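Ex. 9. Protein: Acetoin dehydrogenase operon transcriptional activator AcoR.
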Amino acid sequence: MSDSVSASSRVRRAYEDFLSGITPQADSVRSIVQDSWARSVKKGVNPGEAVPESDTTSMTASEFAEYRDAHPITAVRPLVQSLMLDDIADSGVVVALTDQAGRLLWVEGASEARDKAAHINFVEGSLWSEEVVGTNAPGLALAVDRSVQIVGPEHFAGPVQEWSCVAAPVHDPSTGHVIGVIDVTGGREVAAPFAMAAVRSVVAAVERELQSRAVDLADPATFAAPGGARLTVLGGTYRWRRDGDAGERTLSRRHAEILLLLQAYPEGLNTEQLAILLAEDGVDPVTVRAEISRLRRDLGTDVVESRPYRLTVDLVSDVSEIRERVAGGGDLSAVIDVLGRGGLLVESSAPG
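Predicted structure tokens for Acetoin dehydrogenase operon transcriptional activator AcoR:
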């Protein structure tokens, strides 16, 4: 019997003993888990039925949408997407962002994974506090204000014990108050030690991002959408300049191609669509995700959103200006002169 199976069996016996009023054997279950079980009992949580209903009593669907959009943790959602979603797209897990009460504001991942999570009502709008569901990673992380990992039978609610989850609280850098939790929920893969390290590193990046803004997190206007940017790809090097930047950035040809494609498809492109548009024979999806990751690193994590990939900035390019001039019946000789300078339209072999 493997160590993980043995540990799971030991925890399950401790759980059954606990519910029967028997004190579990020493070292059979972690103290942080047993303490949470005790609080769950004290709060009257029913271990056989503790799956939350969507929180429709306190706000309507439109009120929830408005509340979610204004919540400070939503401001760092693009960063979380860029650091986590591309890597877990096919792993069967979901990533959730909660508010300070344990309400799920965003649940993201592949549709199959989200559909599976919906069976335990792990959906946007549901409340996963310890007081409502008993021991679970998001609720426990909020209760003890630290990162936690809950594996299978450590959950207090029986219907949730086929799942494992890791969660860590996110703090307002100005006040130190918890504003929510980042959670990863799935199967055995979430029980691995690296899952805890991954979530902690993402939370650290998120809190650094919030700190760098040095703003009032209670003001929704603080997190307005990014401004504009200009992309130049004709007649020499490929250059990017964002409103407010001190200077331009030089881009690789691949990054210039990606930005032009995303400008041409404002509704967004998934990984496979972008791969086909970048090369006649297609590009490996792993390569596409790696290029997007490098692009975000160079230009900012908030420039490109995921699922599908799409621009969050109002981008103007010399190519789009040429198209507008042609569509408007402008002087074609001037257009030909600009195109004659070379640049991406000549050098790129991307079919898109």
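Check your answer against this statement. The chain is about 40% helix and 15% strand.
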